[in-house]
Amino acid sequence: MRTSARRRSSGTSPASGIRPGQGIAVLLATAGMMLAGVSGAHADDTEPGPVVAASGTGTDTPALVTGLSERAAATGSAADAARGHLATRKSRYHIADPGRDLTAVATQKTGKDETVRLQQKYKGVTVLGGQYVVRMTDGDGRRTVTGTSGKYFTDLKVATTTAAVSEKTAISRAVGAVTSGLGDAPLRAPATEKDPTAPALTGKSNGLTILPQGEGVLTRHITVTGVDPATGEPLAQEVYVDAHSGYPLLQYSALQTFGAGTAAAGAAGATGSVPDAGTAASDELVVKGTGTRYNGESTEVNLYRDTSGALQTIDYSRRAAGDSNVMIATYDARGREASSASGAWPSGIKTFRPASPELGPEYTNSGAVDAHWAAGQVYDYYHSTFGRDSLDGQGGFIYSLVGVVSNGRPYNNAFWDGSKMVYGQGGGDYRTFSADTDVVGHEMTHGVIEHSANLVYAGQSGAMNEALADYFGNAIDLAANHISMDDPDAALLGEDLCTTAGPRECALRDLDDGATTSKNFLGASYRSDNGGVHLNSTIFSGALWDMRQDLGADLADKIVYRALTAYMTPLDGFTEGRAAVIAAAQELGVSKAQLKLVKRSFDAHGIVPGWEKAIGVDSDTLLGKVNIAGTGAGAGSGRYATSRTNEDGSEPYSVWTGRTSGKGGTTLVSGNNGNYNVYADTDGKTVAWAEYTATSIKFHVHPVSGGIDKVVGASGTDVSALAIDGDYLVYTEMDPYTGGGHVGYINIRTGAIGKVDGGGYQFSTAMPSVKDGKIAYAKLWAESDGYKLGVEVFDTDTGAKKLMPSVDKNTAMGIGQTAITDDGVFWILDQDLTDEGRASVERSALDGSDPITVLPEASKDPVFTYSLTASDDAVTVMSVPMATSYANETMPKLYQVAPDGKGGAQRVSCNRGDQILPSADTGKRVVWLDGTTGYTDLVTRERPAGNC
């Protein structure tokens, strides 16, 4: 026997399908975020010259064309000339009407070189990641096209006028999905001053967007922002809600951070008060000051004296003839919450205001000196090396906020939010995150990337985004601090952030770590690092670093910058990135010997065709390539139930069932009806799931042995944690107003329905499990002296509720997933918020007697209990360590322990990559969704693997 507990994973879009050799387009709905690699002829497989690379999946348009010398229109705009070139060569590009279907995004002109970026629209609707680039030279009164690259999807046939889901419903579903994504984490009491009726998250519609899967999927793009009620950290998720059924089929964070962590990202411009930028540089605007950096070095900093005579950390010195009105401003955000600084300006924020040009220790310790000085160094690097005027290439203002906190505690991270850099205050082992020049260079480079290739921050494209930010951040650090490439610590990033640890112990990443795709690629879902953007970044950045060592800094930097700004497009993966760098090197005229070194760098890091085939697993695959996102699997009495879609992710999810032994075939139970059928669970006799429609979410049940599909209930808001046992179906229904949840139940035999807490805003219940008519759940409620937490068991036969007395409601800081078995109830308990996210596994009889601790919170076992599932013979926990850097060890892993805790915890599987959403079957068998192969696979093991 087993528990019926089932959950959706936390974080971004969980249960993601990942395809290592591909980019975002093929698996958008599966959260793989990777597009099919360029096949056929490659620029790197030929001598320099005209090359038309094969097209990718879902398109007849070539992914890369190089070596052209074709005349383009000399008059009109560069965008008009680019579209004209594509229009006159339909047999090559297969773009029917470039004037109608391609909108100019940006034109970059450096000397005679022009690069035009064009955004694909289908019947007037933006296609996510559909961007095509045309490269030209403009001189002597003529334009010449030299090449093209990018993604233009020619297979689209989706209707764009049939959005059955209203904007209001889409926002509600998106908010609910993000809220549900947080629901796997322990239920925690909010701050006492929080209004329980105030919404925790809000959504904003960005209109319709087509996801380029198969013939296209029409979605409503919603941005959800707010604060994680458990951690106090800011959140912002880009959510794409299927416009037909209302299912949130893709979500990911847009925050571009230096290290691990969650925070929000937005594109809000600066709305605070800033000085008049003026129109030209002048001596009156620049005051020379001095300050001391964290490393003890005295440095010059440029300040500004305003009309009142006050000095401000504003630098106008980078203005020069021919440039626009660039301004570098550094703001004092000490003590402000990171959530208030994400995509917005904290109220009343001001620049640092030193009393004299000599900045004292306060400005060193706050990180102001380093942030302000380093921002100027980054500007100078891009301007002097590539002629780029600011992050946007148009002289845009550069803003830095220094010293934010998270929930009143140190925020050991930094991020780019679409308009500015935000640096955490640091604390304990970490300095303020502006203390290391490569952190500043990294975050500012995210701004450069956003205004050029705009690589989508998820999966392989996100890993390339991080890799490029690391590469240039490191290059800037070495140049600004006069460090040789031969220095043994030259390849480290973040090595200067620590208060006591040495560089190698402190560094978050090492560009010279030797990571290769065949050995070190980690298949990650979106709940882990946005699909591995940090985890896998050194695969690509390591290749770039090797190239820099071989070719020298100047040439390598020019090649990588050209590849970023003139070749790469938002959905590129590692294979496209390799092709872009090699093509850029050819364009810049490298020798055959140098080109060989470039190729060798990628070869050494395993970025070669078919590299993903070397990844192996130690588990048994029940269903390969289910390619699902935001939903999980259930198991019981030798059966499993899960959703699946087709290989390109374009098909709405349907529910299938089979035997956990792997014997026999699979059975479709939901029908493939065009809606999303998700959150499947089974007790071995009945399969239950939720169907998302345009107006409601329907609950279905279907006998495993065959029979009719029956709708037993519905919900008007997002749901999660669906579970079934015998006559009872349970679930968590999200409250979009408070951010809380309510556990609901349905008697599938009689039709009786109810909520265990009555549905009032003063209660929040979540993470239910059900067994023999008894429902266990985590509960949050208010008393006169504050919020309380506990575990409660509801008896559906009698209506009686029993609060487990083994939980001290006054000391519980968090209650996690529950699980009922024949022997009692299990749950996760957190009583210490300062122990890096550890929590215990507790158990008691259903009447609260015979309590024991199965896994102690202070255990030395490497288990960071996040979620659990249980049978009579074993408890399986999903461990999610809190970490500042990402590695295989910090990804979700499964551990199993005996119900009495004896013998300690053992690894369920030694697979690399994500192991998420476990479900206990009979005995010690457990099924889960695994991302190791690069796809989302439903896998199982009959017994633990032991130590890995």
Your description of this structure?
With 948 residues, the chain is an alpha+beta fold. Among the domains are: 23-150; 266-452, Elastase, domain 1. It has 15 helices and 54 strands. Strands 3, 4, 5, 6, 7, 8, 9, 10, 11, 12 and 13 form an 11-stranded mixed beta sheet that branches. Strands 14, 18, 19, 20, 21, 22, 23 and 24 form an 8-stranded mixed beta sheet that branches. A 4-stranded antiparallel beta sheet has the order 27-54-53-52, with no helix packed on it. The chain is globular and about 85 Å long. The model is unreliable at 1-49 and 262-283 (pLDDT under 50).
Strands, helices and their partners?
Blueprint: E1 23-24, E2 33-34, E3 51-52, E4 64-66, E5 70-72, H1 78-87, H2 90-93, H3 98-101, E6 102-110, E7 113-122, E8 125-139, E9 142-150, H4 167-182, E10 201-211, E11 217-227, E12 234-242, E13 248-253, E14 256-257, E15 287-292, E16 298-305, E17 311-312, E18 314-315, E19 328-332, E20 350-351, H5 361-365, H6 368-386, E21 398-406, E22 409-410, E23 414-416, E24 421-424, H7 437-450, H8 459-480, E25 492-493, H9 503-506, E26 509-510, H10 517-520, H11 529-532, H12 537-551, H13 553-566, H14 574-587, H15 592-604, E27 620-623, E28 633-636, E29 639-644, E30 654-659, E31 667-668, E32 676-682, E33 686-692, E34 697-703, E35 710-715, E36 719-725, E37 728-734, E38 741-747, E39 753-755, E40 763-771, E41 774-783, E42 786-795, E43 801-803, E44 814-821, E45 824-830, E46 840-844, E47 852-855, E48 865-870, E49 875-879, E50 893-897, E51 906-907, E52 915-920, E53 926-930, E54 937-941
Parallel strand pairs: 8-10, 19-21, 21-24
Antiparallel strand pairs: 1-2, 3-4, 4-9, 5-9, 6-7, 7-8, 8-9, 10-11, 11-12, 12-13, 14-23, 15-16, 16-17, 18-19, 19-20, 21-22, 23-24, 25-26, 27-54, 28-29, 29-30, 30-31, 32-33, 33-34, 34-35, 36-37, 37-38, 38-39, 40-41, 41-42, 42-43, 44-45, 45-46, 46-47, 48-49, 49-50, 50-51, 52-53, 53-54
